[in-house]
Amino acid sequence: MISPKKLILLTFSALGLIIVAKSDRTLSLEKDEKELVRSLTSINKLAIKSFQTEHGDILDCIDINKQLAFDHPLLKNHTIQLMPTTIPKWNINNNKNSKNGDSVPFRQDDISCPSATVVVKRITQEDLIQSQRLKSMGSKYSRHISSEGKNIELSGFHFAVAEYRHQVFGAKVNFSIWEPEVSPTQFSSASMLIAQGSKEQFQSVRAGWIADGFIKTGCYNILCPGFVQVSARIPLGIFFGPVSVYDGPQYEVGIRIYKDGSTGDWWLVVYDENVGYWPNSLFTKAGLGHGASLVAYGGEVYSPVNEKSPSMGSGHFPSEGYSKAAYVNNFEVVEGSVASKPLFPVTLFSSTPNCYKASLTGKKKVWYNAIFFGGPGKCV
């Protein structure tokens, strides 16, 4: 399998009904260069200050009021919320006797944005073409659940997840971080999805990490207006590191998505920092406007049908256990103003169990409703 520059990235899924609908065609490699330049001029806002990372990416500090989010027609008169007005009381478990990976702190040395700005990754022509290509494929898991599993072609897509199908207003998980091997036409990801509705009314938000051979940017929805960033420290599409080692040190990242009980906005928290939010005005009553009915967490991969599918997670099956299989733990849900352990069990689902699986860990405390997931792949 070809081994391109592999990246571990923070990714945000499309708010399918709202954001993707705004751009229903993809860019091609043959697209006129002038049109690409025009698109980049619109996407990349005026930088007040810039930095180059060790990976070669350029990060720009831009005016918080001029970010891409406000190109969305529903956000023209939006008032930015710098902080959530209501915050769930999360259960923090620091039990040193439980097997937990080390939390990976976000750090970008020598990066400090001025006040009233946010930090974003500067998009290149290559980023734009490849990100649109990945977005055109989308997440087949999202399509699978939105259609209730009916009439969805899954060729090339595989997933192994845990599903919690009850009314919630947020959730929290910790993901172990791995670096799956992928070819230039594949991706392998781990994420948490929160969703509501079905078919045309389906809406979802998602966050996690992705390793892919398509793009250097990471988040393929960074190009879609709608997500309002407030963090001056964490840009969309950041590198995760270090990554977990088979039968060695384990590293993880905590992600929270929850609905502000006052404004209705859906907030994203990473590394205990408020990264930003999806404004309530983007959601419908039948969608995420009044909460969610599904939380799903685990892995998803894609490969063209003429290639063997890539590994998921660590590339090993759940039966190998801690330090060898990828995991998601510390799952909590918000069902009022307080986060708690789920009142109901989760359901496990694997689309291709001979190549990828998900299983409950059987542990207690922060491992309640936790899963190991993944597999070597090689499905065709």
Automatic annotation (TrEMBL):
It comes from the Eukaryota. InterPro entries: Glutamic_endopeptidase, Neprosin, Neprosin_propep. The lineage of its organism: Eukaryota, Viridiplantae, Streptophyta, Embryophyta, Tracheophyta. This is Neprosin PEP catalytic domain-containing protein. It holds the Pfam family Neprosin. Residues 1-23 form the signal peptide. Residues 152-380 form the Neprosin PEP catalytic domain. Keywords: Signal. The keyword Signal applies.
